[in-house]
Amino acid sequence: MFDVTQAAVEGALAAGATYADARVVLSRSQLITARDEAVETLSQSEAIGVGARALIGSSWGFFATPETTTAAARRAGERAAEIARASALVAGSGRGPAPAGLVEVAPVIAHWESTYEVHPLEVSLSEKADLLVDATATMRSVAGISLAEADATVWDTEKWFVSSDGHRVSQRLVECGASMTATAVGDSETQRRSYPGIRGHYGTQGWELVRGIDLG
Q1: In contact, 41 and 32? CB cutoff 8 Å
Q2: Quick check: 148 and 182 in contact, CB under 8 A?
Q3: Which residues contact 150 (CB under 8 A, 6 or more apart)?
């Protein structure tokens, strides 16, 4: 994807930007919920796009598109430069033709990603569903429990960044987590308890995090 981000930067510079950068983001997510011993929701999504920033004088322009061809990325960079040029025509807020001073930083070429033992999107849906359904069954086996719910969420986000100053940085962030909630309805009050914690437990780890929570 570096070729796509590079195309966006080149488009902005060709359109008159004195500085430009671009970022491609690919995001995948998965959500599974269970209620009273049955899977209730399975939601999976994937989104990708490129965003460009351009600086002309002291005015910034931003433009983004879900198209990630090099041609579309170049157009995004050009549009960002056009917006920056138009922004310079608006009085106030420090906008104007005077160039903005940017801090000089040595170019960085690097990659970073969070660590994991088991990628959560590679774990079968059946294993995830069985875990959540079994958790609700365990909760419902307790006398007085009227509603048992459990859920698990996974995120996998990849990013590629390029700037006209020579930066080329990529990163990948893998996150997941789960929670379970039991509700008891009595004659005069309703009590609700969650584990682990009110909103569950999430972190930048693989599926080993969920297995370690011990929802059973």
Answers
A1: yes
A2: yes
A3: 33, 34, 131, 132, 133, 135, 136, 178, 179, 180, 181, 215
Q: Give one DSSP letter per residue of 85-118, joined into a string.
A: HHHTTS-STT-SSSPPPPPP----EEEEE---SS
Q: Which of 18, 86, 98 is nearest to 56 (CA)?
A: 18
Interatomic CA distance for residues 74 and 52, integer angstroms: 9
Could you tell me the pTM of the whole model? 0.85
Residues ≥6 apart with Cβ < 8 Å to 156: 27, 28, 29, 119, 120, 121, 172, 173, 174, 175
At 93, is the pLDDT very low, low, confident or very high (cuts 50, 70, 90)? very low
Three-class secondary structure of residue 71 per DSSP = helix
Question: Tens digits of per-residue pLDDT, 22-58?
Answer: 999 999 999 999 999 999 999 999 999 999 999 998 8
Contacts of 185 (CB under 8 A, 6+ apart): 146, 147
